[in-house]
Amino acid sequence: MRKTIILFGVILGVLGFGLTAFSENTPAKINLPSEYRSWTHVKSMIILPEHGLANPFEGIHHIYANEKAVEGYKTGNFADGSILVFDLLKTVEGNDAVQEGGRILTGVMKKSGKDYAATDGWGYEGFAKGNAENRMVTDHMAQCHSCHISTAETGFVYSKIRP
Ligand code: HEC
Questions:
Q1: Would you say the CB of residue 69 lies under 6 angstroms from ligand 1?
Q2: Residues 63-93: pLDDT tens digits?
Q3: I need a surface site. Which of 2, 53, 80, 144 has the fewest CB within 10 A?
């Protein structure tokens, strides 16, 4: 009987440890904001094939910010709830013009000091072809924050908002 109790205790302990480890390693999920195209347009940029960030960011991207994030650009302090969207599209050249093509990916950054403490309060997600079901980020630090970390003095945000 005592053996059974000890075994039961061990199993519970292992389960508990497993659950804690799981929750610590998987930061809260970020969904694709459905309404971001009506948010404030921050800026746009075209990355050419020769650019250092061409893989995977070649194309034309537009950056959007929700109200809290717009405030963050102004004050340099992005409050919890700030969301930034990086919308990357193909470029199509023809007739002496460059047009937007299909969507390549939509990147999202969401601020929550509690949920994303390990990456300075920013959570990251990418959606292949802008598809809300097609998540790309498995490691916030390795895939995203390790680069954004070099902009710590502007709140880990690279872009500046065009007046
Ligand atoms: C190698 C460096 C690098 C990596 C890796 C990177 N980014 Fe960025 N990111 C940038 C740069 C540079 C900009 C600014 C682009 C501009 O000014 O138009 C940017 C801009 C952004 C923005 C708009 C806010 C800002 O900081 O200007 C979002 C959102 C974003 N990235 C999301 C992501 C996500 C999600 C990932 C991981 C899948 C990621 N980034 C990985 C370099 C990087």
A1: no
A2: 999 999 999 999 999 999 999 999 999 999 9
A3: 2
Give the CA dihedral 45, 51, 53, 54, nearest 10 degrees: 90
Closest-CA residue, ligand 1 atom 12, reads 158
Picking from 103, 105, 99, the residue whose alpha carbon sits closest to that of residue 124 is: 105
Q: 130 with 32: CB under 8 angstroms?
A: yes
Overall pTM surpassing 0.85 (yes/no): yes
Helix (H) / strand (E) containing 160? none
More confident residue, 126 or 24: 126
DSSP assigned state of 141 = I
Sequence ranges of the domains in the chain? 1-29, 31-154
Helix (H, G, I), strand (E, B) or coil at 50: coil
DSSP H helices, 26-98, are 54-57, 67-75
72 close to ligand 1 (CB < 6 Angstrom):
no
- Ligand 1 centroid distance, CA of 148 (Å): 7
